[in-house]
Amino acid sequence: MGESERRNILGKEDGFNTRVNLFIIRHMYYHMKKAEQFMVEGEGKRKKSVDLKTYISISAHRFTRMYKGENFELTADESKTIANCFNISADYFKKEGELIPVYGITRDDWKCYFYTHYGEDVSVWLVNTPSQKKEGEKKVADCLKKIISKKYIISHYDMDAPLYRIYYFFENGIAYKGTDILNKLLEDLKLLKISNWKEFADDPEMLKEYLYLLEKHCRYLKSYLECRELEQTN
What we know:
The chain is 60% helix and 4% strand. The chain has 234 residues and is mostly helical. A two-stranded antiparallel ribbon has the order 1-4. A two-stranded antiparallel ribbon has the order 2-3.
């Protein structure tokens, strides 16, 4: 067994997906609106983010080395710790692991982005024309702006999606648990009053968003109950 296998060293190619996944996590953390526990007093009245290393044990210097395509080590314990943070699979943080799905973005698009922004020498394994590289980079850049929006996340990703769970953790400060969120929803609905909806009187688009989501989940629930009834009668 070689040194890289004993120490779980991830290289340019077999560690690329993990590199992208960690980039997504770091990007969302530092750009989205987070729970107060992730914020500390900064200069003046402005608050700043707690160092992400506090939660996933990877320093800013280590991130930079990854982004530039240098070999990096990620132990099994580190992979498990990161996965447990968000309640997602540790396979997203292993050698030749899975790529966190981002709608409309391919692995080659990510390669174009890293090539453009971090000067990674991908010329030997990325055969794209200059225009294709530019297009791929732009697709990723545009998507990075979208995935820090709560409205976009809840409209495009279901609760099992890794991207949803990453957003959920940073927004709420706890890992997503399916039964927990449904119990909380039930309690919140019991307390909901007509006056709460009137608070959005000046924001009809937000009201439409709520209506869309409520109707969507009503359809899901009705379909599920109908399927259960059919199964019980057969």
